[in-house]
Protein: GNAT family N-acetyltransferase
Organism: Actinoplanes subglobosus
Amino acid sequence: MEVEQIARVRDFNRYYTQRLGMLTDRFLGQDRPFGQARLLFEIGDGVSRLGELRDRLDLDPGYLHRQLRDLADQQLVHLGDDTAELTHAGRRERADLEARSNAGIAALLGELTAGQRDRLIGAQEEIRRVLRAAAVIVDRVPPSSPVARGCLARYAAELDAMFPEGFDASTLTRPQDVTGTQLLALEEGVPVGCGLWIRLGPGVAEIRHLWVAPEARGLGLGRKLLGRLEVDAAARGITTVRLGTHPLLTEALALYRTAGYDDIGGYSDIPYNQLAFEKALVSRDAAGPGTGRAAGTRRSPSASASRLGAAASASRR
């Protein structure tokens, strides 16, 4: 990561927040700072629980309480034991904020040509996608955990609807058969992807059930999960990884081929694994200084197939 990149992101953040007036104590011309105005937006028209507000905005509990108390003193918010609700005055204030915000953005866009507006909106959408990708947390989870099994259930349900032959959920890897690692991807605490690997034999593993939820696709999460699984396997002595997939999963096929996987002969009796792939892994130590992830070296399909042997027969699902 370059120092210049960090500096440019910080410079953009300063310009953006200043351009929108977020640093003033009179946000959008009202007599309150941005933080309190944002709370009026977030509380909305109904009753909001304080814990949900705190989690959604990632606010310190003490800070949140002080801001809400200030709004209550202005008779804009009614506070319950663990709730916040806008008063009639608060709803009028929120409506005024909406109008002022819309007018401010309209004035900004009005200074641009149609092409510039399209470029701005497109750039904002791309920034949002990249920031979402950066915010997704990928971590190991116990294979028997309800959240892990729930993610696999979504994976199975999607394949069942997609495959002409359906998908038998009983073919999912059982928790006790996960001899490697199961990973889960979380966006704001919600599971949006998963994957796991198991040992097939000495130095050989299989990656299974790599899946990204529809709402998180396009963020590069599939590649991120695949890379983390490879790194994890290589760190535990795995030198070769295999995987099988269905011809209908075209995006998965493109991912595997661009990630350095070679087509090989079938090694599994699972009917959905109609195409099979293999990749050699290089451990971090073997890859040399500065290598941040397991590196893949391409292998010819014929060489890959010759290594199926006993390890393939050890595969079970």
